[in-house]
């Protein structure tokens, strides 16, 4: 059994309009009669994150094995707890995760720790799923890290209201190991498809740039050829004129 939660993050309103007044003029002076700047606050759209965790240590083991590169793993430090995962959006890194989202995941992790839920506060560790390291001598649910320096820590207190809000969104899915494997493979195929599309677009763009450069080079060569032909024609005309003048002079002389 895997529990899924919906975590909705609403960004704070962005400030637009700068220091311009109603007419778009800058109001940087301190004149008493100036118009106060019109500041526009734009409400950005909410971002919905998927959070999930296993029911017990055996399912935790499967989630460790079949996670995705976009997943972030949370666990109570030095205590037994649920393994909570946050699925980031494509292209995100740890620094992109809003602080409130990290806090919610940490609070959910604390609430699902037998010992941790009794404490006023606990330390939570979190890292990218791909940083989790599993060796044959480890028991179910136990993990290490490929790079311990990439593990982050946060202290979290009891946040019952936020945990209750998350629990209201909880749904249960019966996922077998085959299901988790299939989902992981589908993700990898989609990543490969996106990479292939990106490479094809880059190759097409490169071909277009090379064609444009070749056409510009040919145009410059044609311009030089035209200029050379023109100069040659003018030179021939001047030479003909000089020759005619010389012949006329000789006729007059004799």
Given as residue ranges, the uncertain stretches (5+ residues, pLDDT < 50) are 17-27, 248-254
**Number of helices in the DSSP assignment:** 4
Give helix and strand order, one letter per element, not per position: EEEEHEEHEEEEHEH
Strand portion, in percent? 15-25%
The main pleated sheet reads as: 7 strands, antiparallel
Anisotropy-based shape = elongated
Secondary-structure-based class equals alpha+beta
Verbal overview:
InterPro entries: Jlp2/Ccd25 (IPR039730), NFACT_RNA-bd (IPR008532). By secondary structure, this protein is of the alpha+beta class. It has a domain at 2-175. The protein contains four helices and eleven strands. The strands form three sheets. It has a seven-stranded antiparallel beta sheet with strand order 10-7-5-6-4-1-11. The protein has a two-stranded antiparallel ribbon with strand order 2-3. Strands 8-9 form a two-stranded antiparallel sheet. A hairpin with a 7-residue loop joins strand 5 and strand 6.
Lay out the secondary structure.
Layout: E1 2-9, E2 14-16, E3 40-42, E4 47-54, H1 57-65, E5 71-76, E6 84-87, H2 99-111, E7 121-128, E8 132-133, E9 144-145, E10 152-157, H3 160-167, E11 171-173, H4 177-253
Helix pairs in contact: 2-3
Keywords:
Fibronectin-binding protein, 4 helices, 254 residues, coiled coil, NFACT_RNA-bd, 21% strand, alpha+beta, Jlp2/Ccd25
